[in-house]
Specification:
mainly alpha; Serine Threonine Protein Phosphatase 5, Tetratricopeptide repeat; 12 helices; 0% strand; elongated
């Protein structure tokens, strides 16, 4: 039955897969593969709340499996429960700290929770683990933009587009704002420097 359910999932026959998986966990409530795949199928259907319940049943059997915490985090994120999603990704990363996607996703949680510095740190970990991870570079750039760290925002945005040109449309929504802010700061710094130089030149010599 599990083999049948997995084939149905692979073929995209989600409703029938859910029916089979529910039969499996009814007969074998101790079968972690049944609960895990039921959670996955329910999430594919968009029934995230029920998916989380299925993942919890799987975690009650074994709470040291990366994929279950990761997928539970994804379901909670889809439900906009960003704190709970972050906690799940943290659990996943305790098991496998070298998963770039989990670092990217936890960065997204921090970003949604308005913790820009934590988001940037997580995205930085993601791209360190996967140097061609265009999405994480874009997310890092966007986080720097929100924090008004425009020079870094521009640098990482350009790198993201170089890695994946399809990101250009997203980058173009804000990169000119970053460039204008950066230029304005530079002009302001130059103006203040000139004012200071003029002020110093006017100071009378003192014996």
């Amino acid at each position: 039955m599990l083999h049948e359910a997995l084939n149905l999932l692979e073929e995209g026959v989600i409703e029938r897969a859910i029916e089979v998986l529910k039969e499996i966990v009814k007969e074998r409530p101790d079968l972690i593969e049944g609960w895990y795949n039921l959670g996955y199928a329910l999430a594919e259907k968009g029934d995230y709340e029920e998916a989380v319940k299925a993942y919890d049943e799987a975690l009650a059997i074994d709470n040291f499996i990366f994929e279950i915490w990761f997928n539970k985090g994804a379901a909670l994120y889809a439900m906009r429960d960003f704190e709970a999603a972050r906690d799940c990704y943290e659990e996943a990363l305790e098991i496998n700290p070298d998963d770039a996607e989990a670092w990217n996703n936890i960065g997204n949680c921090h970003s949604r929770l308005a913790d820009g510095e934590a988001a940037i740190e997580a995205y930085t970990r993601a791209v360190a683990l996967k140097p061609d991870y265009a999405e994480a570079f874009y997310n890092k750039a966007n986080a720097h933009f929100i924090e008004e760290q425009d020079e870094r925002a521009i640098t990482y945005a350009e790198l993201a587009v170089k890695l994946n040109p399809e990101l250009d449309k997203m980058v173009s929504q804000w990169i000119n704002v970053a460039r204008n802010r950066l230029e304005s700061r530079r002009e302001d710094a130059e103006y203040k420097k000139r004012q200071l130089e003029r002020s110093s030149a006017k100071q009378p010599d003192q014996d």
